[in-house]
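Re-running the complex after MR caught last week's input typo. The corrected sequence lines follow. Everything else is unchanged.
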Amino acid sequence: MAETSEAKASTSPPGGDAGGEEDKRDERMLECNICLDTARDAVVSMCGHLFCWPCLHQWLETRPSRQVCPVCKAAISRDKVIPLYGRGNTKQEDPRNKRTEPENTSAFPGFSFGDGFHMSFGIGAFPFGVFTSTFNFGDSRPSAAPRGTAQYDEEQFLSKIFLWVAILFVLWLVFA
Amino acid sequence: MAAMSPSERRLQKELMSLMKEPPPGVTVDGDQASQNLTLWTVHMEGVPGTLYEGEKFVLQFKFTNKYPFDSPEVTFIGNNIPVHPHVYSNGHICLSILTDDWSPALSVQSVCLSIVSMLKTTAGQFVLC
Ligand SMILES: [Zn+2]
Ligand SMILES: [Zn+2]
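Corrected-run output:
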């Protein structure tokens, strides 16, 4: 990898061999349309244009009232871009949840704690556990990606309600 | 050299590609631009077959540290300002991509191409300002 890019940097005749030109075009395919670097935390818009999420986010913040694709001027918004996860990207964390929105990162551990509690609770109080876990699988899994949206907040709120209902149910089982 | 800011990185990339593959009739003063990445001087030749054939113009590009989110400030400078309905005698250029229609996917090269095509047309094809 390092060798090929070095070779490319040192030999840069305007009309290079066909192979080199093709390589360069392939590389440019994956460049962010804003910073012109290889896209990091890449997202793609509905119109198919590639950006780094931090670059696109800054552009959306620059003109909040008129959010258009920098390349083709199609309407674009935070919720309508698709994060791209390459093979090397093992964590597959949605770039839109990274540091640009600190309140989301703090909300996330609370969510996973709630999830874990449901799991362990499922053994103790079987009928109710089945109900909560089907609720989780049926409803929250497909829409797990757009964290930070209103829908996500709602789901989190619902999951907290279920947690409290479950706790009350245990107390009722113990004291009744 | 200290680490470059995102705007400097992008300007450096643009400068490299503009020096390597300039559009016809356009040359950037690479030495000056690489000394101060926020102020570029671009030489532009009047397109053959137009009113400006044989003329030479000089454009100045000023960039803020918010470039490319902010548009560059582009003006004709020197003593030869093209006579055109969208160019004021002080060098100010009336072109929508330099204000409201700016996008960070545009570049110095695309601005130069827009100015070249603006100079190819006379009033009528562009909205007056
Ligand atoms: Zn970028
Ligand atoms: Zn687009």
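None of the earlier attempt is carried over here. Helices of chain A lie at 2-10, 18-29, 53-62, 102-124, 126-140, 150-175. The mean pLDDT of chain A is 69.
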